[in-house]
Design goal:
By secondary structure, this protein is an alpha/beta fold. It is about 25% helix and about 25% strand. It has one domain: Ribonuclease Z/Hydroxyacylglutathione hydrolase-like (Metallo-beta-lactamase, Chain A). It has 10 helices and 14 strands. β12 and β13 form a beta hairpin. The longest helix has 18 residues.
């Protein structure tokens, strides 16, 4: 879906009537600060879409979490070329929410209170957008890292989304619940093991509401799941669709523009470092060829844009929003 189509669709929905495009923009006068308050609305065909921020993760210095074992001066030069001027990377936490008829589908839950004051803002921002936790019907968990499942339980260990069912790929579940999950192919095996206790505790608490599926399944008649292993064994890419309209959600395939510029440099956050590189290169190549609208969990807010091919690596073209119009 191109930008013109998306803007036409969202603007028409804002007015609640079918008007010529020139009349739509002439009549659209209501302005909101909602993009500054932590959420952004848009439509995808018949789907009502909401992106909500959970905050961000600041990694300083960038190495060795990013570009482990790469010459530091080379990393700094590429960072400078890509307008990253400090020796750190800042990863957004963007969460997609889909309203489909009587369902409210949340894709991941953010970090809760587990990553400090820079993160854990999803719940407040979701409520600011007009959605109460008990209205959420479904939670799709892409994988079991802290910034994706930390918001499932509150401080007392109770489920935040009390009426929701949970969905997770069997591939992902089997890895984390195994007697001895294998992190030997990570560049920092110990970092993965720290996540095991949280994953198991959360899975235990939501077990009665948990539905496992095989990747390749279509969920809710609007989300196609496909395996994109490397970051974790059951990590997916998602295709959200409604009629002719599509949005590719690459989840954690890329955590920062540095890994767009040099996808072969990788990150310690990947459970299988080499497979993560191969998956990243494959998916970025496909997205650059398709020229399709993309969402990312960790690229700069709100994580909507396009992947472009460069002589070396790839670039990120954010989808432009000229003004924070209220799309409802």
């Amino acid at each position: 879906m191109n930008r013109r189509t998306l803007l036409k669709n969202t603007a028409a929905a804002a007015l609640g009537a079918s008007l010529p495009l020139k009349d739509v923009f002439a009549a659209q006068t209501k302005v909101s600060n909602e993009t500054l308050n932590g959420y952004l609305r848009f439509n995808l065909g018949e789907l009502k879409m909401l992106i909500v921020t959970d905050g961000h993760i600041l990694v300083s210095p960038a190495q060795p979490i990013f570009a482990p074992q790469i010459d530091t001066e080379q990393v700094r030069e590429v960072m400078k070329e890509n307008f990253i001027f400090d020796d750190n990377v800042d990863a957004a936490i963007n969460i997609l929410v889909i309203r489909k008829e009587d369902r409210i589908i949340v894709i991941d839950t953010g970090s809760g209170a587990l990553l400090g004051s820079n993160a854990g803002r999803f719940l407040n921002n979701l409520q600011a957008a007009g959605i109460a936790p008990d209205e959420v019907t479904d939670v799709l968990l892409t994988h079991l890292h802290i910034d994706h499942i930390g918001g499932i339980l509150d401080a007392a260990g109770e489920r935040v989304f009390s009426n929701a069912s949970y969905y997770l790929s069997k591939e992902e579940y089997d890895f984390w619940m195994a007697d001895d999950p294998d992190f030997s192919k990570s560049k920092n095996p110990n970092s993965g093991k720290e996540s095991v206790m949280l994953a198991r505790r959360v899975m235990t608490e939501i077990h009665s509401k948990l539905h496992l599926f095989n990747l390749g399944t279509v969920l809710f008649d609007c989300i196609k799941t496909d395996l994109a292993a490397g970051h974790t064994p059951g990590h997916p890419v998602l295709t959200i669709f409604s009629g002719e309209f599509k949005l590719k959600h690459m989840v954690d395939t890329v955590h920062h523009t540095l890994l767009l510029a040099r996808p072969d440099w990788g990150t310690q956050w990947d459970t299988d470092f080499e497979k993560g590189i191969r998956t990243r290169q494959q998916i970025l190549s496909e997205l650059a060829t398709e020229r399709q609208l993309v969402m990312s969990c960790h690229l700069p807010w709100p994580g909507l844009g396009y992947v472009s091919r460069k002589k070396i690596g790839y670039g990120w073209i954010p989808m432009p929003f000229s003004t924070p119009l209220l799309f409802e």
